[in-house]
Amino acid sequence: METNTLDKNTPAVISSQQIKEIIEKQRAFFNTGGTKSIKFRKQKIKALKKEIKANEQAIFDALHKDFGKSNYESYITEIGLVYEEINTTLTHLSDWAEPRQVATPLTQFKGASYIHRVPYGVSLVIGPWNYPFHLAILPAIGAIIGGNTCIVKPSELTENTANILAKIITSVFDEKHVAVVQGGVETATALLAERFDHIFFTGSEYVGKIVARAAAENLTPTTLELGGKSPCIVDKDADLKVAAKRIVWGKFVNAGQTCVAPDYLLVHEQVKDKLVSQMKAVINTFYGEDPKTSGDYPRIISRKNFDRLSLFLDQGEKIIGGESNAAELYIAPTVLDNISWDDKVMQEEIFGPILPVLTFTDLEEMIHKINGRPRPLSLYYFSRNKKKQRRIVEAINFGGGCINDTLVHLGNPNLPFGGVGDSGMGAYHGKASFDTFTQQKSIMKKATWIDVPLRYPPYKGKLGMVKKIMK
């Protein structure tokens, strides 16, 4: 996932001393136990939802200023997902937080065993620029429902959204509970120099390694939501009309600046030409003959990212799109043909509206090829064949994905979302968020009316009995 959270050209707007003071306030508040009441947690996220609703238009305006995003796209990819998360949490939080009894072995007679979910303490959430509202506030909700305090560091590249995010959070939360800290590399570095009890980072693999190294200094538990080259596979028996619509939508929503977007297309050579033709028609239907004039097609976040993406436009053959305009940070929905696995566009996550197309004929060879590359955050497979669907899911290691669709697994709060290996560690959404921001505390309660002497010395003559029990 591309991010410039640590862009060295961005000045800090808060001092290291101020950061220390916020952390001290939050640690003191956490130690009072004030965050641990389930009633308090629910009240706060209800208030958060109410404040977001009151500021919907301001969020729309901010995202349009930062990206040129339409209100509809902003709602379904940013605001609506937050509402879904809050609703799910309010329904289930009490059950999630209830101590869970587990079986106790006979050797511990008479005892009862429980797992308590307890908060870590002071947490840090570092958000990315590509979905600057949703991907900053969803982890923060996880921290809150887990009973933690939280500092949120939004991306400095989406200044308008960061400002409205700060306004909303400040209206709902005292700084000693949840605070927003804005700034660039100096701010991020100052935050990472402090001791937190949990760090949640969404961004690129490169910056993720910086975060992980900083966290290691204090042995801080860390969740890393990264990215990678997520394949989209279309087999010869797929419904091409449906596949074309769902691939085009999944790839070009947010102008391709989505960590789970299809990064490259692997299509069976027998149906490649027909699929590409269908996709071209779909792009025209979605965005018109000139997507630059469409109110539904966003822009690239910065000139730096525009220039990086422009280099990919010179690779292979542009069979759809390819137009660009630096002044407007516009790159058309683009499909590249005649691409090899060794081309530069296949060496890093694209994170933009450019889709390379490769072909395959043998499913097993294709699986072997994907497994020889870093593990992707997502994978999408289009096929009507249930046996092949099962083979893809079981044979390839990836974070999550869809059969016969793209992106939509992200919108189900009942599905944990996260990567594996190069694409991240840990997961969140729904109960997975609660689990991520809480520790499992194991407790065994023992009766005192009986005290089995088998475990105590002297041990002579007791081994046979132990072997009968622990066998």
Oligomer: single chain
Number of strands: 18
Q: Give the count of structural domains.
A: 2
CATH superfamily placement of the largest domain: Aldehyde Dehydrogenase, Chain A, domain 1
Query: Ends: how far apart?
Result: 49 Å
The best one-word shape is globular
Query: So how many helices?
Result: 15
Give the low-confidence spans: 1-12
Strand order of the largest sheet: 10-13-14-9-8-15-16
What's the overall average pLDDT, rounded?
Answer: 95
The secondary-structure class comes to alpha/beta
Biggest sheet details: 7 strands, mixed
Can you tell me the CATH topology of the largest domain? Aldehyde Dehydrogenase, Chain A, domain 1
Keywords: Oxidoreductase
Protein name: Aldehyde dehydrogenase
Pfam family, one: Aldedh
Family: Belongs to the aldehyde dehydrogenase family.
Could you explain the architecture of this structure?
It is globular, with a radius of gyration of 25 Å. It contains 15 helices and 18 strands. The strands form four sheets. A seven-stranded mixed β-sheet has the order 10-13-14-9-8-15-16. It has a six-stranded mixed β-sheet with strand order 5-4-3-6-7-17, with helices on both faces. Strands 1-2-18 form a three-stranded antiparallel β-sheet. 45% of the residues are buried. Helix 2 runs antiparallel to helix 4, helix 3 packs across helix 4 and helix 9 (240-252) packs across helix 10 (272-287). Helices cover 40% and strands 17% of the residues. The chain has helices at 16-31, 38-54, 56-67, 71-97, 134-145, 159-172, 185-192, 205-217, 240-252, 272-287, 303-312, 363-371, 386-395, 431-436, 463-469; strands at 100-102, 111-119, 122-126, 149-153, 178-180, 198-202, 222-225, 231-234, 264-268, 317-320, 324-325, 330-331, 334-337, 354-360, 378-382, 400-403, 424-425, 438-446. It folds into two domains: 16-227 and 422-441, Aldehyde Dehydrogenase, Chain A, domain 1 (3-Layer(aba) Sandwich), CATH 3.40.605.10; 231-414, Aldehyde Dehydrogenase, Chain A, domain 2 (3-Layer(aba) Sandwich). The protein is an alpha/beta fold and 471 residues long. Keywords: Oxidoreductase. InterPro entries: Ald_DH/histidinol_DH, Ald_DH_C, Ald_DH_CS_CYS, Ald_DH_CS_GLU, Ald_DH_N, Aldehyde_DH_dom, Aldehyde_DH_NAD(P).
